Amino acid sequence: MTLRQIRSYGPGMPTPIAPYDLTGRTALITGAASGIGRATAVLLARAGATVHCADRDEQGLARTAALITDKGGTAHAHPLDVTDRAQVRAAVAAAGSLDITAAVAGIMHTSSVLETRDEDLDRVFAVNFKGVLYACQESARAMIEAGRPGSLVTMASGAVDTAGPGLLCYSAAKAAVVQLTKTLAAEAGPHGIRVNAVAPGWIRTPMTGRHSPEAQEQTEAAMVRMSPLRRVGEPEDVAAAVLYLASDASSFMTGQILRPNGGVVMPW
Ligand SMILES: NC(=O)c1ccc[n+]([C@@H]2O[C@H](COP(=O)([O-])OP(=O)(O)OC[C@H]3O[C@@H](n4cnc5c(N)ncnc54)[C@H](O)[C@@H]3O)[C@@H](O)[C@H]2O)c1
Hints:
Keywords: Oxidoreductase
CATH topology: Rossmann fold
CATH superfamily: NAD(P)-binding Rossmann-like Domain
Organism: Streptomyces bambusae
Bound molecules: nicotinamide-adenine-dinucleotide
Oligomer: single chain
Protein name: Glucose 1-dehydrogenase
InterPro entries: KR_dom, NAD(P)-bd_dom_sf, Sc_DH/Rdtase_CS, SDR_fam
EC number: 1.1.1.47
Strand content: 5-15%
């Protein structure tokens, strides 16, 4: 939908949800075997995109692909490690004419600053920063070579807005993702490529559910208290933000951070 169509909206015009329609688009989603990545793959497929799901968890990938194809969508599975550039490049090539990449794969790590080891830092940066960098570089290169516009969505975190004990590796890698997002947005914009980050608050996924049931309950209760909306976030809440950024609905957005966080943090 063009700006002119929006301004002259009336009977017979496309509905306001038309800009969210991804029919004919091709999307690559990393981390698609679980949590936010899975919800994103399912939602983008429901919006009409052909979805290429990438993850190191083959069983989880198969489950995501089945969720999509069972509803009549189109999904392809790419088992890969996002820290291996050649594997990421191969998935981008296999996807063909790529329009959208959502770099969602990530890991959690906690250790105090004084106890953080080199190997912790290297592992978290390899997945959470380099994995996102490789997906963005290879996708943007392919889009530019094909002369196609596109949308890249990176997965940051609310951890970039606050500091908490134990979160040095994780939040530093996510802060690097924000800088990557803004820098690439500045560089790739003239090619018609938009780059935006999503920075979710606490979301109920396997990543945040690896605690004891009691600890889980306490964390969720705290999140409900802290959110003006009085509920915890679900993967679909983040997927909706990715859909917005992936689609033409956000055609004038680039270099921005979108925060599906239930209002727990309200930065400028
Ligand atoms: N859950 C939250 O509260 C929350 C909040 C803010 C940001 N995030 C971010 O959202 C993203 C998804 O998190 P989630 O909560 O859905 O977690 P999750 O653990 O459910 O999913 C992460 C997925 O990434 C995949 N992955 C991890 N390392 C990989 C690698 N090297 N190669 C390929 N795939 C790999 C895993 O197999 C898994 O399928 C992460 O980047 C995370 O940091 C999550």
